[in-house]
Write a structure and sequence with these properties.
The structure is a homotetramer.
Chain A: E1 6-11, H1 15-26, E2 31-37, H2 41-50, E3 57-59, H3 62-65, E4 73-76, H4 80-92, E5 96-100, H5 107-119, E6 125-128, H6 135-145, E7 152-162, H7 168-172, H8 179-182, H9 185-195, E8 201-209, E9 224-231, E10 235-245, E11 252-257, E12 261-264, E13 273-277, E14 280-283, H10 289-310, H11 318-337, E15 341-343, E16 349-350
Parallel strand pairs in A: 1-2, 1-4, 2-3, 4-5, 5-6, 7-10
Antiparallel strand pairs in A: 7-11, 8-9, 8-15, 9-10, 11-12, 13-14, 15-16
């Protein structure tokens, strides 16, 4: 008898939604993509060609999809604004949930998802932070755990996108939560992974500019921002996020310890080719984060599937996803207000008036 | 109706055979692994756990496997000595064939496979040279085709394995065909790809040593060898193969043209991590060729499947596989005899007496 | 007739003083080291062997040295606390001055030196910021000037020393002015060079920890610090300074423009050697800043000499040296106080009460 | 009293001659350039501006220069054809000699120089192989001596020049001795250094093409050549020399041992700058060997001076210079004839007839 497979439905078939659907359809051996939902006609057309022939039932109504016969889990790749609602509905139907980050740009809404998940501890509910599944970050984390760098004390981490002159990111800024929530949330998640998720911020400072996308200003957003989060216990993380890279995606992290340092992706590269030409020696760089992290997304599908089927622990806690968004929101607030934000040792915010 | 899948059987479940089987089972969406053959009890035990539960019928008799109902193709990963016989039997049953390299260490036997394939032009018969499916080699080839390096004139290519002190390679030398046939055949295949498969050797020189595996001498083999193949038309390829690397697998290629150069894997690396420590900055290196080429093998499975189902051309000709082994054998002869071998412009060997 | 040489005296023969003396003695063809001053007996012993035999007159009194017959210039490498006084005295004797950085850790004292220099515009008075003379920084600056990166908008720059467990830096903290003044002043100087020296800070934030040198706390100093300086006009510089590197000196700079990026020393290295060993591939890193910048110091001597003899402009303004220390001091204040500092567009500080 | 300096004369003020003259004039503190000789009017004009004002007496007659009062040594940077004669004349005048490589392209003439030097063991006579003075090669050699790579067994070394379309190298081929003598002699010298100068060749093979300089054919020379030298005792060196590089000078060496590998300049670079642009990440490469080896030439001047003044041993033997040219000539012969050359264990050549 063939081993049971995880019957999963995919909600949302936009850029990332398509990739999740394909990864569960084809690249996660123990999963079976049984259903997909999208309200969008173009996405539906794509699905008729790329999913339906392989046994995937298509839905234009999310509520119906989560009642698909035998469905055990959903992967949510819709717009951020409906992530939480869809996640909660799925849990209510007793489905495991893999949700694209962030759960929500609202902390309160995030917490509702967590609360719902707490009620159903038998369900696997994960917010997808892809770098947790990347081989290089995992190797770095293992090396840190082996003590190779002593006590990790400083993290430098950046998420830098290739400049997209189309105006997409200006429109997107209306509801993205801001660059620190949209982009640096990955770096903050890494911070919680490498420093431990019990770290408490002591103070947060951030500064930004709009160098190439002046339209961002009307949404109080920036195309380049730098932030520092100081934690109690003698640790600092500092972040750079940018949408201005000429050369491609450049997501670099350094974990600096008392006895050594680890870098991940200090030398971005598309592949192992170098071209030697009259102007020097050149290597290319991935144009997008999927070019950098494709294998991590595949691994995410595979491990989520295993966790659901075998009742194994997930590699990241749902509460971390909330904490990462929370710190991202505070960075964004510091950025927009131009004011440092401070906290006492219990994590309670110290109002400026008290300073 | 679900699209047709390629029903394939896997022959041989040794180290590479297992990987092929898993790649067709799980990582080639349009293939369906329906059968597997191995005469080996240990491999059979592995298959009962890893293949049988997923609908793969197991055989201990190759002839029976190729009569499995509905089977359309075989992937051959058995010992080199039976590759050719199994390939021919499969073709006789009208099956497509993906055969691990080499078809045979005997040129005559290789040619029998080619002759059989010529009789059945509707069949896809491919010898798996994995580097042809590697993203970096493909990118380099595309850049060459764009004219970025002018006319390719010199190729330097090496296949260097991590030193394996177990004695495995001494035993293996008894039937491997020698280092140039076993290892450099990949570099020779790349030469045919980058220079064109119509190149004609003009002279072949080779020299080798046994530095760490003295037991190789009794098989007339070497653990380090360097060879030069000069081609008519002003082109040279030179090769280094070694089983002595301390640090891991290091397969590097340079294509040097009249107006530029391409390098592939000039800086071997396990992943994107660097460790900074009191002794300097260190990156790790893959221990084995599968660590370097895993994604290429997956792509090979996927593209072989597509070629069979859609009757698309294969990315490499079967005759190239023979030519690569032929040049490898000549290098090996030059290595063992210590004599240069020369050819006239028609490819006919010039006997030493004539020199 | 031999061309005139610059007769120069060296004040201070400590670690850097010795190097300056030797560079003017041996590596600056148009300079002639005629005198050297040190009050320290050990340094004097060194000078009797290494300077006196080559025609250098030794002094234990600075005032006497600057009256040495024919002396035209001094290079000041004494303790920071006497830099300014010695520089002013030299100018009063009509001598050109090359002074180690900083002129002083006090802005007021720095300004006295500048005021004195303004009175004597025929004198060359330079504060030695060695990176201005480094080939790589110069190449990067030239590439920026060619417009290769568009408008420079973000600078990331770090000065990171190899960890010195001797306790030297704890003692040194008593009078160094703090890590931002002592270390990051180089990065700030680069900022003025790449952004233009007319930039006006808008806000300054900084955070630090003492991870390996707890003794620093009593001097209100830190062994790791991160700071952000936002400038009016849409530019940000962010700095990291550390005395905790396990692997060696790592001074890295990135200049990020609207159309490209330049990095300097993204891959620190001692030389061009890589060692391939069972643990991977390792390169070494310079242990000290002189290992990284030796050739820049030589070039500084040569160009200072040329500027004096040929009345050519110096490559950096004395006022920049003051501005760099000023920004460094503000970063240090923000670091120690834990409070952001803000400025209006005229550069006037906005008091917290006004916020 | 000032310590004695090495009074030295420079013969030849062409491209390299000028550099030697300047290095002894300005960058070798214990040397004093007292004289210079050139028969060339342009070079003489240069010398009147750049040497004479600094106390250097100019000569148009070599014989007169070596009688300059007090002269103790000569540095010979004239055309190769007169190296040997000038070296011998200098020795006859009891002068130390630093001669550009090669002593001669004729082995017999080389041996005359050695014979003359043997008669005068108190003289320092050195042929300048600059890589022996390069920090990276020295570091690699020290690491090998520490046993970090086990027994060195394979050397790969290449000397590759940037393509010069001016036709200079075609004219030069008339008397250069051929590419293996002119270029690979450096790699052969490194081989003698890393393998030991007592190694005995067992066989020599070489192949070449003329890809970009067809005019070379009339001088029996090539613009790309690959050669293998197998040594008795289980060691192989293989070389690549080229004048076709689009990107610049690329001189790379690998020393492969039984327990590790060392590479020198595996990643050629002009400096520490990387430019990130829409096409990727680019670094520049030195255009000429002096860009790569300038500091090595300076160190050569300094150490030659020290050896003369302090009667210290030179870092390389004169006989090695002959042996390197000898092996280079044999490679060139194998290249031109297309025939392998073999030797018995005593180093005696085995005639083809005997094969």
């Amino acid at each position: 008898m063939a081993p049971q497979k995880l019957k999963i439905g995919a909600a949302g078939l936009g850029r990332m939604g398509k990739r999740h659907a394909i990864n569960f359809l084809n690249r996660s051996p123990r999963a079976e993509l049984v259903a997909a939902f999208t309200p969008d006609p173009d996405e539906l057309s794509w699905a008729k060609i790329n999913l339906e022939p392989y046994g995937v039932t298509l839905y234009q109504d999310y509520d119906k999809m989560i009642q698909h016969p035998g469905i055990m889990a959903v992967v949510i790749g819709t717009a951020t604004s409906v992530h939480a609602e869809e996640a909660i509905k799925a849990m209510e139907k007793n489905l495991h949930v893999l949700c694209e980050k962030p759960l929500s740009t609202s902390i309160d809404v995030c917490k509702e998802v967590v609360a719902e998940a707490r009620k159903r501890p038998h369900l696997k509910v994960m917010c997808g932070f892809s770098r947790r599944f990347d081989e290089s970050y995992r190797d770095a984390h293992a090396k840190m755990d082996q003590g190779l760098i002593g006590r990790p004390s400083i993290i430098r981490s950046q998420t830098c996108d290739k400049h997209d002159p189309s105006g997409f990111f200006v429109a997107y800024a209306a509801w993205s939560g801001g660059v620190f929530v949209d982009m640096s949330v990955h770096d903050i998640d890494l911070t919680l992974w490498f420093f431990g998720d019990d770290v408490t911020p002591k103070s947060i400072s951030a500064h930004g500019i709009t160098a190439v996308q002046p339209g961002l200003k009307k949404y109080n957003d920036f195309d380049n921002a730098v932030g520092i989060v100081e934690f109690y216990g003698g640790r600092i993380a500092y972040y750079y996020c940018s949408r201005m890279m000429a050369h491609g995606q450049e997501d670099t992290t350094e974990i600096i310890g008392t006895e050594g340092k680890l870098s991940i992706n200090a030398n971005p590269q598309q592949n192992l080719v170098n071209l030697y030409h009259p102007g020097g020696i050149t290597r290319e760089v991935p144009a997008h984060y999927y070019g950098r992290f494709e294998q991590a997304f595949v691994r995410e599908s595979i491990e989520f599937t295993e966790a659901c089927l075998d009742d194994k622990p997930l590699p990241l806690k749902l509460t971390n996803a909330v904490k990462a968004v929370e710190i991202g929101s505070l960075l964004q607030e510091a950025l927009v207000s131009g004011r440092q934000i401070r906290f006492d040792e219990t994590g309670k915010r110290i109002e400026t008036a008290q300073l």
